[in-house]
Amino acid sequence: MGSNYGHLAGFLPFYEELKKRNYLVEFVIRDLSFAHKILDPLGVRYFQAPVLRDQSSLPESTYSYVDLLAQAGFRDSDQLNTSVNVWRNLFELLDATFVIADHAPTAVLAARSLGIPTALFGSGFFIPPNTEPFPIFHIWNNLPNQIALKNNAAVLANINRVLGRTSKQQVSHICELFDVEARFLCATPEIDHYQDRENEDYWGPYFADSLGAEPIWPETQGVKIFAYLTEKITNLKQVMVALKNTEGSKLVHVPNALPEFHTEHAQQNMVIEPNLLCLSEVLANVDLVIHQGGVGTASACLMAGVKQLIIPTQLEQRMLCARLVSQGLAFGIDFNESVGAYSAAIQGALASPSLAANVEAFHLKYFGFDRDEQLAAMADEIEEILAQKKEPSIKPDSLFE
């Protein structure tokens, strides 16, 4: 269900660990926009995931995870059956032994219907708590249950229609759909989109910070500000003007920015970069990162002890922004503010001693976190699951030469 390159980039370190163990990993992707840039150099095969084209009848309000399922086709029996059939066909054609689902609930249902062991992989937003009903998203206050739960009955019924049609055991609660062989919740409690989650293991954050080109900063004295922005920000022009008015050296990544955008906004102390930049190198020499609330970017900033200003443009980002702001781990601002408001937010984040102290405390708390150990432990768990299923852990036709 994700877009842009956050999901692909974030998964690549785990891909490398699985490849090292001689597994053949193939990708089924919703948004193919950046697949050629990220996956073609690796020589892997990738395929288009089923995507609903007619979304005119889907619910607009999103109060809990069940509404996300409804928007992904789970409220319409015909749409859900069609999507599940496509996923089943893909898994059978690819001879899938194990499914790793990065926010792909329909794929999880299809794998369940085929009896293929599955792991959930991703941030807290992608892995809802194992509770019934799903909790109302914390950005909504005093929402009546009858409104928040209006899609539950239809979604549950359609899940069971799929399972009944394939002679698989049906579920009593929607959360049982995500009761799979492994749940790789790649976050810390502070970065979890949900509050007060119980009986869940945190595997530590995931992000890819080694992809991309070397950042070239303007040769300007003063603070260094990196911004990763897209045109989903309604007042992107106002953000750019606020950055122009801020002293220091500024590097702005706008994916696939057109030459006209560069001409309009670039200046001596601000570089506009349309291509992906190496985040670890950026974070090694920066005072503030401005972004829209992608969990990978936010996690990388916190692990590096870097202050951030978040401009969320959609629900997942709003939830993460609210969680981090409430803990004093980030500043946040709306995506349709004025130049003056953006300028004040930038200056406030740069000057805030409490933000600096809280971010440094987080950095020290998780200092020494080893992503190689994290990935190896997840791969070990997959191998153990496969062994328990009495399946060969490596198929003869799945070996890399």
Mean pLDDT: 91
Overall radius of gyration: 22 Å
Helix/strand-derived category reads alpha/beta
Number of strands: 11
Strand order in space, largest sheet: 8-7-6-9-10-11
Listing every helix as H and every strand as E from the N terminus to the C terminus, the arrangement reads HEHEHHEHEHHEEHEHEHEHEHEHHH
Number of helices: 15
Q: Give the overall shape, derived from the CA principal axes.
A: globular
Low-confidence stretches: 391-401
**Biggest β-sheet strands, sense, barrel:** 6 strands, parallel
The percentage of residues in β strands lies in 5-15%
- Separation of termini? 32 Å
Share of helix among residues? 40-55%
Structure description:
With 401 residues, the chain is an alpha/beta fold. Helix content is 40%, strand content 10%. It is built from 15 helices and 11 strands. The protein has a 6-stranded parallel beta sheet with strand order 8-7-6-9-10-11, sandwiched between helices. A 3-stranded parallel beta sheet has the order 3-4-5, sandwiched between helices. Strand 6, helix 8 and strand 7 form a beta-alpha-beta unit. Helix 1 packs across helix 15, helix 3 crosses helix 7 and helix 4 crosses helix 7. The longest helix has 18 residues. The protein starts with 5 loop residues before the first helix and ends in a 13-residue tail after the last helix. The C terminus is likely disordered.
